[in-house]
Structures are given as structure tokens and as C-alpha cells.
Amino acid sequence: MSKTIIISNRLPLQLKINENTIETTPSVGGLATGMKSVHKQNNSIWIGWSGITEEEIDASIKSDINTALESHQCVGVPLTQNDIEGFYYGFSNNTLWPLFHYFMEYTAFEKNTWETYIDVNQKFADIVLQNLEDGDQIWVHDYQLLLLPNLIRKQKPEVSIGFFLHIPFPSYEVFRTIPCREELLKGMLGADLIGFHTYDYERHFLSSAQRILGHEIHFNNIHLDDRIVKVDSFPMGIDYNKFHQAAIEHNQKVKEDQTELQQEINKHIKKGNNQAKLILSIDRLDYTKGIANRLRAFEYFLDKYPQFRGKARLVMLAVPSRSNIPQYQILKNEIDQLVGRINGKFAEVSWTPIWYFYRSMPFENLIDLYISSEVALLTPIRDGMNLVAKEYIASKLDKKGVLILSEMTGASNEMSEALIINPNNFEEIADTLKFALEMPEEEQIKRNEALQKRLQRYNVEKWANDFMDSLQATKDDAIQYTLK
Ligand code: ADQ
Prior knowledge:
Blueprint: E1 4-10, E2 13-18, E3 21-26, H1 30-39, E4 44-49, H2 62-70, E5 74-76, H3 81-100, H4 111-131, E6 137-141, H5 148-155, E7 160-164, H6 172-175, H7 181-188, E8 193-196, H8 199-213, E9 216-218, E10 221-223, E11 228-233, H9 240-252, H10 260-268, E12 277-284, H11 291-304, E13 312-319, H12 326-346, E14 354-358, H13 363-372, E15 375-378, H14 387-394, E16 402-406, E17 419-421, H15 426-437, H16 441-457, H17 460-483
Parallel strand pairs: 1-4, 1-6, 4-5, 6-7, 7-8, 8-11, 12-13, 12-15, 13-14, 15-16, 16-17
Antiparallel strand pairs: 2-3, 9-10, 10-11
This protein binds adenosine-5'-diphosphate-glucose (ADQ).
Subunit structure: Homotetramer.
Organism: Aquimarina algicola
GO biological process, one term: trehalose biosynthetic process
């Protein structure tokens, strides 16, 4: 029986080795949750890195690790410390990530990390080829594996390959600056179907393929010498029911069963009419997410509208990420200083303007925060999609709450009922915050009703199925085309 092979940099589970026992826990990220519906089918395997380098694995437990992975339909790609340095921290996150998010000043072009990126993509290809059988479909994910589609295609010309990019694809003028631009495009064009979150990213990619490689484009098809590659947009949804259900369970909890965080929130904030409203922000600590901007805009808001001092509080959760890359350390220091300065400037005995958490929180607490906050303020400078915006809305059972969302996120294209802002315009953010905090409940409900309907319909399962159906259709068309 043919199967689907999902490939991403990381496997959808975390491994923990204690002495001689191996524990696995599922990963929480957007991609892992998103692909669950495809992966849970019996005829699918997931190939990726386990999160533990070869140097960290004792030879005596290697086979136990493989068995543990196998029981979750996973296959590990063995990577060394050197691979991770050059491929993950180096070329993926010090070159592609900043460049694709328009942070050109952070983009390093280094020959050695590029070479490791090629080697590691080849390691992934080798494992895929070892597991590939006739009739299998392949779905490759994200910017760490741009070369993989073509590496597989070269060995297996007939195989069906889909590729999805989770981050923005930049405009041609930005993309053309990278020395290995041709190799990257050729790598991606090994796929039959290339998917992006938005129509804009799709157009940028088509324009680069045309202008850099000189390919002919008809609508969204790229004509290669021997094949046609289809390019399309597939805006990723969320597991709507998971968030909706979690919110129901949250609301059913009696006081004693509530999380400590929820009890604290209740104690400090929800004090009858005199309550301070919560403004929530959640992101990985990343310069693309506009966290420093958000803090400055919040400071400006408290300066411009002093009537909100003591009446509104920013709850900011920043999840540690890539903390051994210098830019991330610099950003962490900047945020620490900003939070300290703003809290020092405005705090009163009974009110601190910002609650700042720098850590990962369990899912239960994420739900506490989504449900308890009157406003979500998400201000990325660039973001492929932004799932937090969708999760916030899905968790609002009573449909009350206001989403303020940056126009630089992919999600803003589908969420026009949210309050859409330019993350660089502090004046606009401050005015929108005031507007959000004063928005009548009927209007909140009306906006969220429309948003929820859409999120429920275009959920992550639909996203994955649409992509797979389109991949199948592309392959069928290609067969027809060759027969003609
Ligand atoms: P990310 O940059 O990681 O994803 P995002 O889309 O917001 O950004 O997804 C983050 C996910 O992590 C959410 O599902 C959220 O619930 C979860 N999460 C955040 N904080 C958490 C915490 N403290 N504990 C547990 N879970 C937490 C990349 C791209 C995005 C794109 C996604 C999916 O950068 O633009 O939307 O992939 O394609």
C-alpha cells in the first residue's frame, strides 16, 4: 500500500533520555499540530531530526531510540553537532530566516554554512530514498529543506512531491541578493506542487522563478523542460475544535481545579467594575515578531491616554527561541530593558503595566491567557501566517474579545474583522488600543462570529487535505500532459 512521507526539520515529538529509558512527548508547535491529521493515518511516516545530536546518543541505546520513534511512525535523520551549527543555526536561521523576513541587515552569507546546508539536505534525501516505495507521496516542509525536493527528484524522477513554505517568500528584489539563489529555486522546483500561505508569497516566488531562472509562467504553472510545477496558496488553519473544546473545559472548572495562573489572574485583575483589562501578546522571542515595537507602542499609549493607567495591563509571553544566535540575545536584553523601563516609569502600588513571562507555558496556561484577555495585540514586522491570532479567536466561547493584528502577517489577509494595524505606526497602535478597550460587546461578538465561522471551516485538517488533493490532481494532470 502506498504511503505519505512527511518531512520536516524536526520530528513532531520530543525525546528525553533518562539513564536507559526513553520518553517521548508530542511537540506543541503549529506544524506538528497541523500535520497530525495526515500523520495519524496508518499509511504515513514522518522523517526529521529527533532533537538529539549523534554525539549525545550512546551507541547502546541507538536501536531503542529508533524503536521508540518507529512506534510513532517516525524515522530519525542522524545529525551531528557540526550539522546543527552550520545547517540549523547557520544557513537556516542566520541566512534564510532573516532574508525571507526582510531583515537584510541580519543576513549572513557564509560559504561554510551553505555547504553544511547542502550536506544536511542530502542526508535527509538519503533517509527519504531508503524509505520510499513506488506510489508514495512526499510532502516536504519549510525553509530548512529547500534543496530536498530536487535531490529526491534526481534519484526518482516519477515520484510525487509537494513542498510547503511556512514563512514568507520575499519579493524578487530581496531574494535576488542571496548568492545561491539559483540553487535554492532549482531545489524547490524539484516539487510538483509548491504551496505558500498567501497569494503575495506565491507571486513573489513566480516572479523570482521567471526572472532568475528564465522559466515560462502560465497563470500559476511554471513550465520546465520536462515538467510543469504548480504554485498555489494554502492559508494554514488551526485545530479549531481543540481550542474550542479546551475553552469549554476551562469554563467548567470549579475554582479549586483552576490553574495557579488562572487563580492569580482572578485575584489580581478581575475585581468587579474596577478591573484592569488584559492585553495579551504571545510569541517566540524573535525579532520578526515586533516585540520591542509593541512595547514602545504600549508606552506611547500610556503616555497619550493616561486614563488607561491602572485600567489596562499588557500580559506578554515570550517563548525562548534560538537563544545561541547573537541577534536573539541582543533582542532579549533590549526587551528586558524596555519592560523594566516602562514598568518603572508607570507602576503604582496596586498596578504594574506589564506582566512579562519569558518561558514556555503548558497548553492549559495558554488557554487561561487566551480566555482571560480582553484584547490580543499581535504586532509582527513579518510573519508567514501567525497561528496565535487564530487560536485566540477560537478560544472565545462567548465571542467577546478584540484582536489587533499586524498587516504584515499572513493571517491578516483572512481576518479582516480584526483591527488591522501597521506595526511601525505607534500612533495607529495607540489609537487602536483605545478603540479596542472601549469597543461595545455587541460589536466584538459580531466581528468574532464571522471570524470563528471561517476558522472553523478552514481548519488545519482542511488545509492539509486541500494540499494533498491538489498534489494528487497536479500529478494526474502531469500524466495527461505527458500522454498528449
Ligand atoms: P511560528 O513562528 O512558531 O511558526 P506561530 O504561527 O505563531 O509562529 O505558531 C506558534 C505556535 O506555538 C502556536 O500554535 C502556539 O499555540 C504555540 N505556542 C506559542 N507559545 C506557546 C507556549 N508558551 N506554549 C505552548 N505552545 C505555544 C511558523 C511561522 C508562522 C506560521 C507557522 C505555521 O513563522 O508564520 O504561522 O510556522 O505555518
